[in-house]
């Protein structure tokens, strides 16, 4: 560092610059912690309409955020928030939440609906939502043990056409009644 | 090194943990057993989260959470209680036992009476506590002196502010309960910035909701010192027209400067008297007394300037200020902002204590307001740092397109999650 007549001013300027330069770009934890006010600490949601992200597949989180951002997936607040993140940041958040320990939610569920939902699952959903929804497959998210209210809102969005589906999914889902969809949501919520 | 008190205690601590007990000043906490201690003051939306995340990030750091009460009542959702939608404040009340035991936080119920930033000691009603770094999330207090005729001791008992949830909320609700049908409620809103920008307008909505149900001949006059509604304006106006047409008399640019409890009136700019049967005066605000006494308040004499990355005070090294009391650029004085700021502060405070590189802020605010018991609106934003200032990320965030029942469903989950995060 050169010392000039106004040496301390230069030094102060350099210090200020170097302080700013020393801050690393937001880490995965920095980005993801901000979500936890709604989605729970480390993505373990306290429910009922906010989904847990802890242990969710990275592919599914990244796809959701990308679709929220583009508007392909309907939302109340998530579209507005997703637009605030770059693809790399979304990737880092997907990575962060996928590595957290999944949580089992305690929910009181209508067992008749759970039983009906199991039949719906086996007939129409099991090919993609494998292992009773406990395992992700391709871009299918883990739905087992997710909060019921969240799953019901998604079912409503599919049924109303607000949330678009891939052809395969639409083919399986369109014939299902509202009660079938609600029963399937109950079944997945029940899986431990 | 010079063997001052702190180093002496540190040395003792490193020699024998047992020796510490004998060293502790009466009632206080002399030195941390593990060598490093952070004191967090304030058990609200900011302080609980800072304490928790510091412990989650580095369990070798001792965290002492100092709070004057044994519980905390959330301001968010307290308007639903005032409007008669929530039966009591129980759903808004958290206690600290689980938070403290889950994360190994030391909880101290005490009043802070002084801070010596040079010696790094905080004085409390429970004794002195030394610290390596301190986080304060003290919330707000009021600039009562700007309201002529306002006695800080007696006026709030007659004209409640209800801007700190608890007994004040109950008082306002009881006054509404006791008012005759055909009465007038006056709500006065100070110039911004104040805690919870949309809060006064949500309150007007939910008081109107109560009046419509129980006292339909009544009305509410809103005297706003700001030229217009400061947050979610078009949505509130739409909601008022839809649900409370003719009931809410909103008047912008009407700054209340005088209160008169004897005649139950306020005066706009000292000349225009407005009478009410129930008068809810929300006084102008500043950082809480604690921040003022600790020398954390900046030249505006209202709020605390902080570094946008670490939330360390620019006036007192070693003290970080988060929540409503801080000047956090574009981040509003909201509960979710405080939650988000606490996490940014925790990550960077731990990095500083461990000699590691700090990380740029990434923050969020989400905020819901109820228009009726069933319909709500929301605002959301993502924040980053640009040229040393906290700014909203361009082309993101914004308000909900409309009022809806689904927003209210999410609002309820918002409360459940954020209070769970603070209390477990």
Question: What features would you describe in this structure?
Answer:
With 192 residues, chain A is mostly helical. Chain A has two domains: 28-98, Cytochrome c-like domain (Cytochrome Bc1 Complex, Chain D, domain 2), CATH 1.10.760; 111-190, Cytochrome Bc1 Complex, Chain D, domain 2. Chain A has helices spanning 7-22, 28-33, 36-39, 58-70, 78-82, 87-98, 111-125, 130-133, 148-160, 167-173, 178-190. In chain A, helix 9 runs antiparallel to helix 11. Chain B is of the alpha/beta class and 424 residues long. Chain B folds into two domains: 36-141 and 286-355, 3-Layer(bba) Sandwich (FAD/NAD(P)-binding domain); 154-283, FAD/NAD(P)-binding domain (3-Layer(bba) Sandwich), CATH 3.50.50. Chain B is 30% helix and 26% strand. A five-stranded parallel sheet of chain B has the order 5-2-1-9-20, with helices on one face. In chain B, strands 13-12-11-17 form a four-stranded parallel sheet, covered by helices on one side. In chain B, strands 22, 23, 24 and 25 form a four-stranded antiparallel sheet that branches. The longest helix of chain B has 19 residues, at 335-353. Chain A binds chain B through residues 20, 22-27, 29-31, 33-41, 45-50, 76-77, 80-85, 89, 149, 153, and chain B through 52-53, 56, 309, 336, 339-340, 343-344, 347, 357-364, 366, 378, 380-382, 384-385, 388, 393, 395-398, 400, 404, 406-407, 409-410, 412-414, 416-418, 420-421, 424.
